[in-house]
Amino acid sequence: MIAPIPVTYTSPHPYAGENDANAESYAYYADDGGEGGEGGDYGDDGGDDGTIIPTAISFPMAIELEISFGSATETELNTDFVILCTNVLCWGNIWGNYSGTTFPGKDGNPSLIVAASAVYLRFVVGGANTNSLWGYSMTVTPLYGTW
C-alpha cells in the first residue's frame, strides 16, 4: 500500500486584486505545492476578469483525493472564487466553487472527497482585494486503494 503524502497549494497572503497597482501578480496558482506569487508557473488567461488558467493537481494511481482548506482561508465573498474542476477548461462538471469563508475542511466542515486521481484548481479574482484578505491554503491528500 502507498502511504498518502499530503501536498499544500496556496495563494500569496494577502493576494492582490486585478485593479491593484501590482496587477501582474494577481494571477495565482501553484502546480508544484509551492507558494503563489510573481514568476514561476503563475499566469492568467489574458482576460480582464482575473480568471486563472487552471492548474492540474494529479496523483497517479490515487483512487480519490481528499481536499481541505486551512483555517485562515478567506476570499472576497461572491467576487473571488476557488474552483475545483474535472477538466482543464473548467467546463461542465465541477467539484466545488467556493468563496468567502465557507470551504471544505475549514471550521469543522467536512473535507471534499473527489473520486478521481486529478483535479484542476482555478482561482478567480474578480476585483481589487480591498480588504487584504488572506487567500487560500488547500491541502490535497491522495487516497490509494489496497492491493
Helix content: under 10%
Tell me the name of the CATH class: Mainly Beta
Shape: globular
Strand neighbour order, sheet with most strands: 1-8-3-6
Q: Specify the CATH architecture.
A: Sandwich
Given helix and strand content, the structural type is mainly beta
Straight-line distance between termini: 7 Å
Overall description:
- The protein has no helices and eight strands.
- With 147 residues, it is mostly beta strands.
- Helices cover 0% and strands 29% of the residues.
- A hairpin with an 8-residue loop joins strand 4 and strand 5.
- About 20% of the residues have low confidence.
- The strands form two sheets. Strands 1-8-3-6 form a four-stranded antiparallel beta sheet, with no helix packed on it. A four-stranded antiparallel beta sheet has the order 2-7-4-5, with no helix packed on it.
- It is globular and about 45 Å long.
- It has a single domain, classed as Spermadhesin, CUB domain (Jelly Rolls).
Structural key phrases:
147 residues; mainly beta; Jelly Rolls; four-stranded antiparallel beta sheet; 0% helix
Give the helices and strands, then pairings.
Blueprint (H helix, E strand, L loop, with lengths): L6 E4 L44 E4 L5 E6 L10 E6 L8 E5 L13 E3 L3 E8 L11 E7 L4
Antiparallel strand pairs: 1-8, 2-7, 3-6, 3-8, 4-5, 4-7
Structure described in brief:
By secondary structure, the protein is mainly beta. 0% of the residues lie in helices and 29% in strands. It starts with 6 loop residues before the first strand and ends with a strand.
